[in-house]
Amino acid sequence: MADAKTRPFLINKDEEGNFRLTVRTTRYNSQGYPLVDSALQEELFKTAAAAKAFARDNFRAQPGEYATK
């Protein structure tokens, strides 16, 4: 389900030290080229674990679907 190169959930740390969650969706054009759309969520999290829990509860995220880079 999750592509090895583009995982659907990206967790980054911002300048203030908060963690942010970006939800990415991948679709493919007629030639099979991946097109990735991303949506930064408005919520701020104190820990990466809190961001993962939010993704799990709201987007049905599974282990292995998270990226940090």
General description of the model:
By secondary structure, the chain is an alpha+beta fold. It has one domain: Nuclear Transport Factor 2, Chain: A. It is built from 1 helix and 4 strands. It has one helix at 48-59, and strands spanning 9-13, 19-28, 34-40, 66-67. It has a 4-stranded mixed beta sheet. A hairpin with a 5-residue loop joins β1 and β2. The mean pLDDT is 92.
CATH architecture: Roll
Distance between the termini: 19 Å
Number of helices: 1
Helix content: 10-25%
CATH class: Alpha Beta
Order of H and E elements: EEEHE
Q: Tell the overall outline.
A: elongated
Mean pLDDT: 92
Q: How would you classify the helix and strand content by structural class?
A: alpha+beta
At the fold tier of CATH, the topology name is: Nuclear Transport Factor 2, Chain: A
